[in-house]
Amino acid sequence: MQVFVDTANLDEIRAAMSWGVVDGVTTNPSLIKKEVERLKAAGQQVDMDCHIRNILQTVDAEHPVSLEVTATDAAGMVAQGKALFQKYNQVAQNVVIKIPVNTYAGNSFEGLRAIKSLDDAEIPVNCTLVFTPEQALLAAAAGATYVSPFAGRVDDYIRQQSGIEFSKGDYFPAEGWEAEADEEEDVEEDMLDDNGIVSGVDLVTKIADLFEKHEVDCNIIAASLRNPRQVRQVALAGADIGTIPFAVLKAMMQHAKTKEGMEKFTADIVPEYQALLGGSAPAQPARPTPAQQTQPSAQPKPQPSAHDLINRQRGGG
Ligand code: E4P
Fold it and tell me: Do the domain assignments include residue 261?
């Protein structure tokens, strides 16, 4: 699975590029608004035009950058898409136009019409706000180069519909969340779902299966990703690309035993070994005092399992 970074923050894009892991960038009006407002509040003289050019130049022609339209009718989206492409693709030849699958303004098929017109004009389209396999199928048929199922927001929606409280980064089990049994009516437990979709990962899985079965030539960008485990699961589900927020990218590198192992290896570097490699040994971590040695170790808490989370949510153990 390719890795896109889901941000309009230049420092985050530069950092992730320097790690050698980024294949592209996705933005949306909310991300650009948030970043330009942040820079202005910090006293920087920026405008959106300049900021978008900086993003495009920070990556290059090998790294597509999605820019979203704002119009809600096909003619408006096509005009904006063509204007955005004409204006910005010359900066680094990497612009992809983001079109919502359904704008909910007037006729519901404006997004598909816009995708078809832009595809006819050989402008690559990332079809966004995809929440069903059916939408993905139609967007691909209309000519989208990419479809973006919003995995995290599906999980949010399923939880919201059921009145379950959650925080944005909370894990949601890929296999779904069991609905509570209705004891009075003796109804069997079933999975919570959105028209048969039991989780964001399930949405990506079904789109990937459908595209594979019917040889649909369209790239799946798993979007709205909230935690490392969800990234792993959309990759296993067959997403071609995951567009990942910077904080989640960083979290993907963390493990308590990697940290512990590094501390032990570093503590065991003797001068003779270091001399073989050149330079001087890195500073040793401070040794704990006898009093500290009797304290319980400050290991990160183990992550709760999906079932722990479900039980806790329901007031269980
Ligand atoms: C990317 O294309 C999407 O705009 C983005 O992933 C949405 O993420 P969110 O649901 O966290 O806002």
Answer: no
Q: What is the CATH number of the domain that holds 76?
A: 3.20.20.70
Ligand 1: distance of its center to the CA of 223 in Å? 6
The string of pLDDT tens digits covering residues 157-208 is 999 999 999 999 899 999 999 987 666 665 556 899 999 999 999 999 999 9
Q: Where are the beta strands (DSSP E) in the chain?
A: 2-6, 24-26, 65-68, 95-100, 125-130, 146-149, 219-222, 241-244
Point out the ligand 1 atom lying closest to the alpha carbon of residue 245. 6
Closest CA to ligand 1's atom 7: 224
Looking at residue 255, what DSSP letter applies?
-
Give the pTM. Answer: 0.87
Total structural domains within the chain: 1
Residue 20 CA to residue 98 CA, distance in Å, equals 25
98 as an active site residue: the answer is yes
298 CA to middle of ligand 1, Å?
34
Give the active site residue among 34, 98, 168, 206.
98
pLDDT in tens, 22-77: 999 999 999 999 999 999 999 999 999 999 999 999 998 999 999 999 999 999 99
